[in-house]
Amino acid sequence: MEIPRIPLGDWIESGLTWLTSEFSMVTRGISRFTQTGIDILNDGLFWLPEWALLGLIALLCWRLGGTRLAIGAIAGLALIWNLGLWEPMIETLTLVVFATLVAIVIALPVGIAAALSNRLYRVIMPLLDFMQTMPAFVYLIPAIPFFGIGSVSAIFATVIFSMPPAIRFTTLGIRQVPVELIEAADAYGATRGQKLFKVQLPLSLPTVMAGINQTIMLALSMVVIAAMIGADGLGSEVWRAIQRLRPGDGFEAGIAVVILAMLLDRLTQSLRKTRQ
Amino acid sequence: MDETRPVKIKVRGLSKVFGKQPQKAIELRNQGMKRPEILEKTGQTLGLSNISFDVYEGELLVIMGLSGSGKSTLIRCLNRLIETTEGEIIIDGENIPTLKEKALLECRRRHFSMVFQNFALFPHRTVHQNAEFGLEIRGVEKAERHKIAHDALKQVGLEGWEDAYPNQLSGGMQQRVGLARALANDATVLLMDEAFSALDPLIRKDMQQELLQLQSKMQKTTVFITHDLDEALNIGDRIVLLKDGEVVQIGTPEEILTKPADDYVRRFIEGVDRARILTAESAMRPLRSTARESDGPRTALHRMRDHTIDSIYVVDRDRRLIGLLEADAASRAIEEGSDSIIPYLTQDFRKVPMDEPLHNLFAMFSEKSFPIAVIDQQEQLLGVVVKGAVLDELARAGEQ
Q1: B120 closest CB neighbour out of A181, A190, A191
Q2: Which residues in chain A are contacts of B112 at CB distance < 8 A?
Q3: Cα A137 → chain centroid
Q4: Is B400's pLDDT higher than 50?
Q5: Which residue among A275, B42, B237, B361 is buried most deeply as judged by most CB within 10 Å?
Q6: B230 and B369 assigned to the same domain
Q7: Chain B residue with minimal CA distance to A182?
């Protein structure tokens, strides 16, 4: 006797179709909202001349990270400008910033909730494992029926892919607050809210920042992959180089991604250190 | 101890079981089983079993026991950082275990300040912000809580350190901040959980002295947890001794030392420097005989002969000590035909209050060998201490 194959894929597909048709109002709304956000951010960054934006970023690096970071930023960004990759770099930056913001807005409350409730913790942690280990490309497929080809789908896939560390680190940070300090807050009659805002959150901030740093890094890698579904930016440069078999172009765009990644990483880390 | 003092916290039949089926453990306990058997049978740990005691208004009550005795659990039950399994904890008419969440918060804010073993200061807040934490939680207005916290820090000797962070302070100073945080809160009861145990011995002694000084000024009801008998004897008005989650003995330091309730307590007090704690009262003997001020010299001399003593203490009608009559002074009075012994009394003797430490008495025996008179606050004569008794008492302390 033959055991029938479980039609898992069919179920998922019909589920997704149902979601797409039932919630088209919602997805279209999200789509429009996100696209507007991306456009505004992009327009803003393009409105500034290259040298002005470079100067601003260098200044920010100098304030937060010191002279060495500022010099590195100038050199790196100048190279990108020189290679003619300024425009795709800005597009990538916009996608990363936007996706990270969305991810943080979702991740912080979820992370806090998972830290405070054991039941929620047990539900959320395997979900995060799922989100992190599922091959990133797979998210791109349902993104298209939801949001169509383009930047919004890229953001959707990026948010899902990059959010887990922010949630995990937030939960970890809050759970790591020493028991005595929680006891102290309780002993003096603090409400849950007071405990959260006066003790737990401030004390977990360094850990939360580490999570956000991870999220930014993941977002950057995903945004590049998202070029496959029509996202603009450095990813699409790489994609084009693959299709035309031009390794030189591919590496140029790849190096630009590396520079952007290092810049974002050092910036957020120095932000974390000054907070401590 | 005056047992009619007003009671601040009344603990009755308090038990705590750690585990998922507390009732089962309580049942076995009621059948007379002890902690290890209950653990073996049910997997539940009987943390505290049927604890009852009172905390009097204004006293410093020490709860003492070794690790595992349940003392930390007990103090946490008082302000319900740990939920109790059965029993009552009544403070100002409210039964803490049954309070609803909101009432519990209110109760903690009004009644309890707490000082922790490892200080539990908030590392992200300055010394000053730590001190005002309790007030901030209660919503006290900024200017006011600033002032109160400032005063509290001044009281513990940390003026000028307001803007430092806890990690910039030494252990002793950190615990002062912990104390200031508790004092600023001005709750009615101060809970101190092994508050000085993490400090090195010298600083610890200092802190004990300071606590005693603060205590004599403020008369705050204090429950102090410690595993250190020396500390307990040094600062406690009364001591509750815990063992395996049960009360072994409740009493003043003196009572614990001189009348240990069982072998456990006796073993516990081994090695304590008893001479430092023993007082005149413990070596005091009742008087064999006294003379009254109205007695004539013949009566007095007769009494001395009856009891083969060569001097006698003379008291007035209210048993207040007025002097000492020596045998040869009495003989002189008879020769000189005096009716009264009053002119022949000498004041050349030593009198001490009941709580005079024993080692102080020792020095007093140097020249004259009159027994030392022990008196109370009304100058009434309670008894005498003779040289031999002091030696006896000290020797016994040394043996144990």
Answers
A1: A181
A2: 187, 189
A3: 15
A4: no
A5: B361
A6: no
A7: B120
- B214-226 per-position pLDDT tens digit: 888 888 999 999 9
Chain A residue set in contact with B, beta carbons under 8 Å: 178, 180-181, 183-191, 194, 198-199, 202-203
Across the interface, whether the CB atoms of B123 and A203 are under 8 A apart is answered: yes
Among candidates B123, B124, B134 on the partner chain, residue whose Cβ is nearest the Cβ of A188: B134
> What is the arithmetic mean of pLDDT over A191-206?
93
Assign domain A24-275 one CATH number from 3.90.180.10, 1.10.3720.10, 1.20.1050.80, 1.10.150.20. Answer: 1.10.3720.10
Task: Give the structural domain span for B78.
Answer: 56-87+96-278
Q: Where are the alpha helices (DSSP H) in chain B?
A: 22-30, 35-42, 71-78, 101-111, 127-131, 133-138, 142-155, 171-185, 201-218, 229-235, 253-258, 263-268, 274-277, 280-283, 297-306, 327-335, 358-364, 387-399
Q: Give the chain B residue whose CA is nearest to the CA of A202.
A: B124
**Minimal Cα–Cα distance from B23 to chain A, Å?**
25
pLDDT value of residue B369:
67
Only one residue has tokens 């084009």, namely A240
> Taking the domains of chain A in order of start, what are their residue ranges?
24-275
Which residues, in sequence order, are CB contacts of B373 under 8 Å at separation 6+?
B313, B321, B324, B349, B350, B351, B352, B381, B384
Select from B108, B118, B121 the Cβ nearest to the Cβ of A189. Answer: B108
Chain A residue with minimal CA distance to B186? A188
**Given a cut of 60, is residue B314 above it in pLDDT?**
yes
pLDDT confidence tier of residue B396, bands split at 50, 70 and 90: low
Whether the CA torsion A90, A92, A95, A96 is positive or negative: it is negative
Q: Looking at the structure, do residues B297 and B252 belong to the same domain, yes or no?
A: no
pLDDT digits (tens, 9 = 90+) for B332-356: 888 888 888 888 888 888 888 888 8
pLDDT at residue A188 tops 90 = yes
Q: Has this prediction a pTM greater than 0.90?
A: no
Q: Which residues of B touch A199 (CB under 8 A)?
A: 122
Q: Could you tell me the strand order of the sheet in which B321-326 lies? A: B291-292, B311-315, B321-326
Whether B135 is covered by a domain: the verdict is yes
Quick one: pLDDT at residue A276?
47
- Count other Cβ atoms within 10 Å, centred on residue A82: 9
Share of chain A above pLDDT 90, in %: 52
pLDDT for the residue B395: 61
B244: in domain: yes
Cβ A92 vs Cβ A158: under 8 Å:
no
How high is the ipTM of this complex? 0.76
Residues from chain A that touch B122, judged by Cβ atoms under 8 A, are 181, 184, 199, 203
What tokens appear for B259 in the block? 């009348």
Give the total residue count for chain B: 400
pLDDT, tens digit (0-9, with 9 covering 90-100), for B284-304:
877 778 888 888 888 888 888
Q: Are residues B72 and B139 in the same domain?
A: yes
